[in-house]
Specification:
single chain, about 325 residues, alpha/beta, Rossmann fold, 2 domains, eight-stranded mixed sheet, four-stranded parallel sheet
Amino acid sequence: MTIAVVATGGTISSHLTDAGWTSLDGRTLVDEVADRFAGIEVTVTDVATGPSSNLTVDDMLAIAHRVRDLLAEGVDGVVVLHGTDTMELTAFVTQLVLGTEAGRAPVVFTGSMRVHSHPRPDGPRNIADAVAVASNRAAAGRQVLVCLEGAIHAADRVQKCDATSVDAFTSSPFAPIGSVVDGIVTFTEERPSPCAPVLMFAPDVPLLTCYPGMAPADVATALADRRGAVLEVFGDLNVPVPLWGPIHEAWNAGCLVVLASRPFTHTARGEGLDLLGAVGAGGLTAQKARLATMAALGSTTSRDDAVAVLHRHRQVFDSHDRSST
């Protein structure tokens, strides 16, 4: 069995020496824990260094395309070592590029919250766990995965929720889809339905965060002459009344206006959204909604088709309705 590791820098590779900070290569990090996956051949490619906060969408696409190429070469799984600041975004870009198909070899992102030179680094365990997942047959045919601190998350759900704790990622309101305990991998969800990969990403999709008292003119300027835009709004996609006008005008001009919210809501369509001239992100965070909108617009020629691609990635959480008794 062959597992390919793609190293992209990040905290997991950061090491403080007497001479200052240095970035360790992927082979060094993998070799430190090689005894935990005896019998597995691990190849390593370094494609980037430095903080993941520096990555552009093009950089994320380059990582995703490298993963796609490795899968095409026939490896049994891929592990991506990545900084935690934007790990959930590169993992989601990779999910969009690969799609989900039965039997596809596992792709697992991991990293660390503590630097390599920390007295108790979390990187070695995370690498060993990620290789265990990537080499496990139960991980095949699933979404791109994110594995840290023993929890396995789906790339379209996971988000970083703590900038200091080693237990820094959540899929809330969902639970993680699996776990790794002492090298034993367990999944608690069935494999998802197949989802086609996207073809291209449109480059010009702004993300605006709405705030109390935001000027309508600012929204109108940001949306002018755009094919698509994402607005982070409130609650269950509630938009301040003064912003209705510029959103409606942008939609009428052909812009795909996508509304996302900081709290989770799987709302995607509805009479109110239709009247406003917008669609919901369907449970995606604002950052992921922007990436999905870029992918949808880049892979289609009509707005309706773009909406259909966007909503393939809707996250539906089956909870009790707040109006029920």
